[in-house]
């Protein structure tokens, strides 16, 4: 029996019986998802298995077969094969910002919404960037390493205050805009460039192009997603446009910067320093065996993808993603899903709710309405949203026919996944 079954139980959403016992819904959390999420799922009476590490692919393929919800962070790769193995899988939660570790198109085609945490680590990443700007400007990484090695090298050459300097932000989203606000508090001038029109906060000034930002900035910080457009977007040509003696920071995605080009610019002195938190290839777990062409470069801060690694951010991420997943389980709401039509309909008293994901082809809504009409079902409320590949429908019906409607929709050739909630 799966959550798409129509048998009743004593579990409840509000004062309503649910179609599947909530205590039988299995949540599998990997990579040490924060305890705040575990507690939220437990309060819903779900079965929760929380593991501290990612799983080898062959183990994951086995474990996912019994899971209804899978929670991961950035190291677990969710391929089409993994999704197919999850025969009961309803949704995937990425307890981080990025979702490029999930085959989103395959998940969409199988009726599996994927949720993430686009807001919760904003402050933590922004604070790290401000910290690194000051550290680079004062060459603190080099001075610290020297003193640890027993060398006393007190110098002021090449060290500057950041007040009055220009910060260029590439990608003015949640994190980029927060960085701009904090940088202005330090007395910096702030420029930004984004491919979408964005409202400038404070005195931040928009730039029409990436070259414009690169040419005018003393510090350039990157806050863009991993897309075809951003892949290796900072290469030799772009670095050559930067001011001589400027600094580059990347806490976005490891595929954005051509590290070999950055290493050459650091070696030549064209770039005075860099801070890198993300890499094209990162270890699946903590390890001493990590290599980068940037290792050993002067005034270069290398960190192991810790931009959002604070207690506050991880707790907030846990709450944010768990909230989305719980609303999806309990109400069918897909608001905030990154790969799925967004639908949210308030609960309707004294009705049963049917959820249907289907292939978005001509005539599918006609077939759905005909199936409902043939059963003389009274629809109290319904909401449909589509993307290029699928449609997602929430329908509230009179209780006496909901089971038959669910079965009828599930039998349509266009149906991908059908579920009855209560």
Q: Roughly what is the average pLDDT, rounded to an integer?
A: 93
Biggest β-sheet description:
7 strands, parallel
Rg: 25 Å
Shape: elongated
Low-confidence stretches: 4-18
Largest beta sheet: what is the strand line-up?
Answer: 10-9-8-11-12-13-14
Per DSSP, the total helix count is 13
Q: State the total count of DSSP E strands.
A: 18
Chart the SSEs and their pairings.
Layout lengths: L11 E2 L2 E2 L8 E4 L5 H9 L3 E4 L6 H7 L5 E4 L7 H6 L5 E4 L9 H6 L4 E2 L6 H16 L2 H9 L17 E5 L3 H12 L3 E5 L11 E2 L3 H7 L2 E4 L13 H6 L4 E5 L8 H10 L2 E6 L23 E3 L8 H21 L20 E8 L4 H11 L4 E8 L3 E8 L4 H9 L4 E6 L2
Parallel strand pairs: 3-4, 3-5, 5-6, 6-7, 8-9, 8-11, 9-10, 11-12, 12-13, 13-14
Antiparallel strand pairs: 1-2, 15-17, 15-18, 16-17
Task: For this entry, give a set of tags.
422 residues; alpha/beta; five-stranded parallel sheet; 13 helices; 18 strands; 31% helix; elongated
Structure write-up:
This protein has 13 helices and 18 strands. The chain is an alpha/beta fold. Helix 1 packs parallel to helix 11 (311-331) and helix 5 packs across helix 7. 42% of the residues are buried. Mean pLDDT is 93; it is low at 4-18.
């Amino acid at each position: 029996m799966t959550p798409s079954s129509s048998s009743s139980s004593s579990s409840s959403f509000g004062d309503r019986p649910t179609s599947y016992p909530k205590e039988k819904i299995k949540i599998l959390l990997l990579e040490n998802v924060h305890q705040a999420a575990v507690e939220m799922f437990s309060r819903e009476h779900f079965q929760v298995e929380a593991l501290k590490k990612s799983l080898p692919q062959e183990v994951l393929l086995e474990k996912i077969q019994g899971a209804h919800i899978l929670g991961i962070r950035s190291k677990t790769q969710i391929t089409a094969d993994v999704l197919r193995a999850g025969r009961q899988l309803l949704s995937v939660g990425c307890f981080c910002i990025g979702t490029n570790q999930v085959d989103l198109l395959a998940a969409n085609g199988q009726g599996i919404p994927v949720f993430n945490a686009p807001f919760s680590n904003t402050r933590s990443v922004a604070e790290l960037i401000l910290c690194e700007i000051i550290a680079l400007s004062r060459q603190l990484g080099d001075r610290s390493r020297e003193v640890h090695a027993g060398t006393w090298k007190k110098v002021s050459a090449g060290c500057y205050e950041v007040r009055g300097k220009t910060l260029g932000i590439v990608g003015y989203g949640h994190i980029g805009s927060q960085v701009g606000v904090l940088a202005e508090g330090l007395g910096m001038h702030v420029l930004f460039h984004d491919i979408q029109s964005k409202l400038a906060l404070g005195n931040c000034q928009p730039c029409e192009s990436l070259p414009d930002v690169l040419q005018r900035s003393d510090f350039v910080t990157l806050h863009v997603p991993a897309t075809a457009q951003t892949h290796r977007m900072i290469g030799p040509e772009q670095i050559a446009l930067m001011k001589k003696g400027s600094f580059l920071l990347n806490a976005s995605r490891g595929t954005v910067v051509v590290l070999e080009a950055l290493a050459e610019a650091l070696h030549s002195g064209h770039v005075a320093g860099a801070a890198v938190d993300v890499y094209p290839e990162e270890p699946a777990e903590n390890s001493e065996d990590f290599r980068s062409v940037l290792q050993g470069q002067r005034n270069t801060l290398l960190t192991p993808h810790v931009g959002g690694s604070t207690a506050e951010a991880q707790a907030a991420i846990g709450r944010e993603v768990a909230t989305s997943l719980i609303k999806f389980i309990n109400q069918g709401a897909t608001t905030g899903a990154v790969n799925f039509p967004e639908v949210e309909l308030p609960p309707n008293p004294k009705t049963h709710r049917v959820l249907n994901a289907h292939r978005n082809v001509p005539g599918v809504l006609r077939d759905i309405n005909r199936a409902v009409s043939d059963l003389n079902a009274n629809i109290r409320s319904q909401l449909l949203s589509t993307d290029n590949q699928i449609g997602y429908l929430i329908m509230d019906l009179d209780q006496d026919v909901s089971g038959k409607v669910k079965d009828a929709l599930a039998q349509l050739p266009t149906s991908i996944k059908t579920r009855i909630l209560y």
